[in-house]
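[Meeting: bench + compute handoff]

Bench side (C.D.) handed over the final construct sequence. Compute side (W.E.) agreed to return the predicted structure before the next meeting so the bench team could plan truncations. Sequence as handed over:
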Amino acid sequence: MSSEIQSEVSTLAVRSALPPGCSFGSVHRFSRQNAVPLTSQSGPCPPECQDLIVIWVDFPPQSPEDPFHFSSSRKVIIMILVLFFAFITTWEMSSYSISTSSMRRDFGVPEVDAALGLSLYGWGFAVGPLVLAPITEEYGRYLVMVVSVVSYTILHLMGKNISTILVGRFLLGLTGCIGPTLTPGFIADIYPPEKRGSPMAIFTFILLAGPAIGAMSMGFVEANQDMQWRWVQWIQLIIMGVFTPLMIVGLRETRSLVVLQRQAKRLRKERGLQDGGRYTARAEINRMHLLPALKRSIGRPFCEYNWGVYFIVISGLPYVFSKLHGWNIQITGVAYLAVAVGSFFGFLGNFAQDAVYRRRAAKDGTEARLWASMVAGVLFAIGCFVFGASATPGSSWFGPCAGVVLVLGDLANCYGAFASSAVAGMSFLRILLGSSFAIFTENMFNTLTVRYSLIMMGGIAMLLAPIPFVMFFKGPWIRDHSPYSKRLIAEEQKRLDESEIFSLEPLARNESSGATRESKERRESV
C-alpha cells in the first residue's frame, strides 16, 4: 500500500460529498474479475487484482432503514410473524406423534417406523441450519424465511404412503428449522441487548409449549374416526395456507449487514468510482465462518442431553398414559398440558432470573446469569426421578404430570442460559442427538420399563448438573480462554457503536479495574 494512496484518502474526504452514513476507509485489494475482496492484502498488486480505497457504507444516525430504528408497530408485526412460525414448527412435533396410531393402522407399519418420522423431523432441524446459514448470510433473513414458509406449506401435501410421509417429515424439518433458528436473529436485529429479555423469554416458552398445544388440539382430531392423521395434516396445511401470505407481506429484512450490502451494491451501480473509492459494506470484507458454530455445539453436552430427554417426554407421553393408565387418545392429549404448564413456569423463571441478575450483577458479574441454570439443572434431574418413580399402572396420573412440569420448567431455564446464541439452542448436535432419542424410546420403555428408563435418565442428568456450577465459579477463566466469547463481545460492541445506541467502551476494561455496575450489566446483555 503506497503512502500516495493513503494520503489521497484525506484529500478525497475534503473534496467529495458522500451520501449520509458513508465514510472513507483504507485501501483494500479486490479481484478485477468479480470485484471480490481478497484475504491477502500485502505485497505487490498482481495484474488480476486492483488496490482501491473503500468508502464504507453505514447507516446514518437514527436512519429508519436501520432495523434498530424500525417503528414499534413494525417490530411487533415482525415478532408476531416469526414467533408464530416458530410455534407452528414445534407444534407439528407432537401433532405427528399423537397421530401415529391411526397412521400405523392405515399403512400396517410397526411403531418404530412411525416413530422414525419424529426423528427425521428433528434431523431436518439439525441439518437445516448448516445448509441454510450461508444462504442467510448472503441473501438475508427475509428471503430465506419466506422461501422456507412456502416450502413448509407445500410439503404438507406429501402423504400418499409411509415412505413419502417419512421423506416429507425430513424435508419439513429441513425447511421448518428456519423458524426457531432465525427467530433469535430477528430479535437481535431489531432490539438492543437490554430489550431482548422479554422476546427471548416468549420465544423459549413457545419452543417448549408448542408441542403441548399441538398434542392437546390434535388429540381430539386423532380420536375422531372420520378425521385422524390425514386431517391432522390438512389442518396444518390450512393454517399455513392462511399464514404464508401474511408472512410475505408483513415481514421485512432485518439483517443490517445484508441491507448495507444492498445499499453498497446500489451505490456502486449508480456512482461507480466517481467519488474516489469503491462503495463497500463491512460485511463484504469480514466474511462469517460456520465451523466455529459446530465446535460450540459440540462443547455443550449439558443442552444436548436435556433436549434428548425432551424428545423422550414428547414421544413417550402417549405410551405412559395410554398403555399404563388406559387413557383414550383425547385424554392423553390433554396430559400434554403438563408440558405447557412446565413451559410456563420456565417462562416465569426467566423474569425471576432477570430480577436475581439485577441484584447480584455487582457482586457476581456475568456469572449472575447462571443462578437459574444452577437451580434448574438439579430440578431437571429431580423431575426425571419423579416422572420415572410414578410411571406405574397403579400410581396416580398426577406423579408423571408433576415430573413433566419439573422437567420442562427447568429445561426452559437450562436452555435460557444459551438462548442468545446464534442458533438459540437449535444447534446441529443438540437436535440431531435429541431427536434420535425418539427412535428407541418405546423399545427402551419395553425393555427397562418406564420407571427405570426415566430414573436412569435422571441419574445421567444429575451427573451433568454440576456444569452450570463450574461455569459460575470458573466463568472468568473460561471467558479469558474462549476466543469465541471475546469475538462475540467485540462484534456486538462494534455493531451497537455503529448504530449509536449507546457506548460500550467500559466493556474493554478488566472487571478488576473497577468497572461500574452499569457497565457490567451492559457487558452481560451482550
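W.E. noted at the follow-up: Confidence is low (pLDDT under 50) at residues 297-302, 412-426, 500-526. C.D. will use this when planning the next construct.
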